[in-house]
Amino acid sequence: MSLEANKALIRRFYHEIDAGNIEAMDELVAENYLDHSPPPFPGIGPGREGLKQTFRMFWDATPGRHEIEDQLAEGDRVVTRLTAYGRHTGDLPGIPATGHDLRMTGTAIHRIEDGKIAEKWSDKDVLGFLQQLGVLPAVGGA
User: Fold this and answer.
1) Is residue 9's pLDDT more than 90?
2) Is residue 37 helix, strand or coil?
3) pTM recorded for the entire structure
4) In 3-state terms, what secondary structure has residue 97?
5) Measuring CA to CA, which residue among 86, 75, 73, 77 is closest to residue 124?
6) Helix (H) or strand (E) holding 36
7) CA–CA distance, 61 with 119 (Å, rounded to integer)
8) C-alpha to C-alpha distance for 127 and 70, rounded to whole angstroms
9) Of 101, 113, 125, nearest to 9 (Cα)?
10) Quick one: CA torsion of 20, 118, 79, 93, rounded to 10 degrees?
């Protein structure tokens, strides 16, 4: 695939997530997908099925959207800087629904193999996310 096709694959990946079309992951993600930065919740399985579990959990608990800020590609990798927006309307493991609006920034590196997403590394503002959920206090109090 070309660099532009790889970037388009990642844009479609986020578009399908935002649409709640988790079944599209069968077409977009390799069965043996490896997430090097999985969410810190127990019970998430490996591979594509684990990814689908994760997105179902977040779709149910924090429906929202992703906005791609920047995207770069080289070789078989695509780097995406994005912002995720949502509302905490359902429970996450150990975190009851708050109704709070959420905003989280992140950077993800996806490796593409045979036209599918094979691996992901990511850095997310988890501290800010947990502060918005009220799990941790905001810096400076209040």
Assistant:
1) yes
2) coil
3) 0.91
4) coil
5) 86
6) none
7) 25
8) 22
9) 113
10) 50
